[in-house]
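Hi team,

Below is the intake form for Transcriptional regulator from Actinomadura rubrobrunea. Please confirm the fields before the structure is written into the shared record.

FORM ID: S-0412
PROTEIN: Transcriptional regulator
ORGANISM: Actinomadura rubrobrunea
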Amino acid sequence: MGKRDLVDAEPRPALGDSRSAVLNVLRAFGPLGVREAAERTGLHPNTARFHLDGLVEAGLAERATEERAGPGRPRVLYRAAATGYGVRSYRLLAQILTSLIAGTMPEPAESAAEAGRAWGRYLADRPAPFERVDARQALERLTGLLTDIGFGSQAEAAGDDVLIRLVHCPFRELAEEHRDVICPLHLGLIQGALAEMNAPLSAERLDPFVEPNLCLAHLRRRDEDSDGEGAEDG
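The structure came back. Fields below:
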């Protein structure tokens, strides 16, 4: 993983050089008045005010009133919003945690699958009491969940069983380096979701990267009165 991959791309609007400079000054020195922001950025006060107001409209800055005990009108100050955009390193965090599982767990694949099953149960829509979910409904809910996570998924019959074609793995970079962790986790997600729905399907295995951008999940139909999650990954 190169240095450029350590931080995630910033999901922020294009601000331009001057507005970005004003935002950086607020983050470093705020709260500031218009004149202080202008002095620190080298902009004319009217220009600084224009960019400050623009940052407020974009949700990247907030206005505040100066607290003062003496006479006179309190100044309007600007500060960077607490939820403002900045560098995020979730990808690096995922890399660290994945390497920890792969390098220190006695059975990293099973640990990852167990975590996946727990999160699959959590993310799936639990049926109402006494509601029976048939295979078609379960597949619709499962592919919808996978789409929400970031996969492109399509279910198709494979004899008496079901094959889910998965494209655009949202974990691809991690999976290419730690397939023994990420792919069992993905299989566990499917298993946990099906179990939470009490679906008449069980995920038997996952074949990763059968093509450069394609993985295959193999689901087996089971009796609606039976219970099971499946446990084997590819």
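SUMMARY LINE: The two ends are 25 Å apart (CA to CA).

Thanks, M.
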